[in-house]
Amino acid sequence: MLPEGGERGQKLLKAGRILIVGVGAGGLGSPAALYLAAAGVGTIGIVDFDDIDLANLQRQILHATADVGTSKCKSAQKRLEETNPEIRIVIHEERLSAENVQKLIDAYDIVIDATDNFATRYLINDACVLSGKANVYGAIYRFEGQASVFMPGAGPCYRCLFPDPPVAETVPNCAEGGVLGLLAGMIGVVQATEAIKLLLQTGTGLVGKRLVYDALEMRFDTVQLKRNPACKICGDNPTITTPVDSSFACANAEGKSSDAPGSDQIGAVELSRRLNEETPLFLLDVRNPEEYSICHLQDSTLIPLTQLAGRLAELDQSKEIIVYCKSGTRSLAALKLLSSHGFTRVKHLSGGILAWIADVDPSMQKY
Fold it and tell me: Could you say which of 73, 128, 160, 174 is catalytic?
């Protein structure tokens, strides 16, 4: 019934092919996928290699409690096909990489970036620029969200705004830093709206603009963006000519640990072994008090990372210190801080307390 749509518009949607990438069936991808399916977008692709965790459910509304432990892709496919059996849902249960990104993106008209890490975000951006595909970007953190549309040839790309990834340990993801679940719905729906407008070829959209939403203040702001002529991928003399995997990795929400020999980290299993041998270790928890009250390692001392620099005098440099947080990001930052102040016997728990729960004590409360 919309003049901008009509029968012609519905046919355009039916012929449309949209790929939701990153945490494709996650926080942003869930509401976006639901509304795209309900609108009748003919082909929706979902890229996700993860299984559903209970902690996902406050924002990943495609899934239910009964789905915990199952594939996000398969759960999303079932839910979307229930919503609209007349469309095609294509699932890609694989991690996006430089080897497969171009092939995946080339099969679709529009890409929705629903990722939660910078490595994948830069990979999507570069592949979209090289293939000339629209990249509908969204991001959320705590109480703030943002969205934009990066259209090759018509405006800036993501690298125009942020030429290089930030330092890894300075950027927690939603699992590490927290997020208002409703925020995912707000930004995910904005992304779906922009994608539908692109398919319908109507409206002005967010090309060359960044929409910023502050949920605490209930305020929307729009920032004008400009293409950077020196951009490495879309500039006048690009130096990136093919997608490349970034070495950047932000907070590990999966709780996976490793025991790299000679490194400044220790795995959960190795830490458990050493504690069982009654090795004298000082366990330093750098999370927030709210997290500590949910679960913590026995005999650990809580000093939040934000207070650590001012409380170094409380620590004994002669002791072996094991620092841990939720998934490893804050503990790595703490390790670097302690090392810079002369602490030489410090390691951090790889994968954080999530790794401890996964590998050592599954009975501990997970969050």
Answer: 174
pTM to 2 decimal places: 0.79
The tens digit of pLDDT for each residue in 129-183 reads 999 999 999 999 889 999 999 999 999 999 999 998 876 555 555 566 678 889 9
Place of tokens 């929706």: 44
**Model pLDDT for residues 2-53, shown as the tens digit of each residue:** 888 899 999 999 999 999 987 655 689 999 999 999 999 999 999 998 898 8
Structural domains of the chain sorted by starting position, each given as residue range(s) with its CATH number in brackets: 6-224 (3.40.50.720), 265-359 (3.40.250.10)
Q: What percent of the chain has pLDDT over 90?
A: 76
Contact 142, 179 (CB under 8 A): yes
Mean pLDDT of 326-334: 92
Does residue 157 have an active-site annotation? no
> Of residues 157, 160, 234, 325, which has the active-site annotation?
325
Active site residue 174: yes
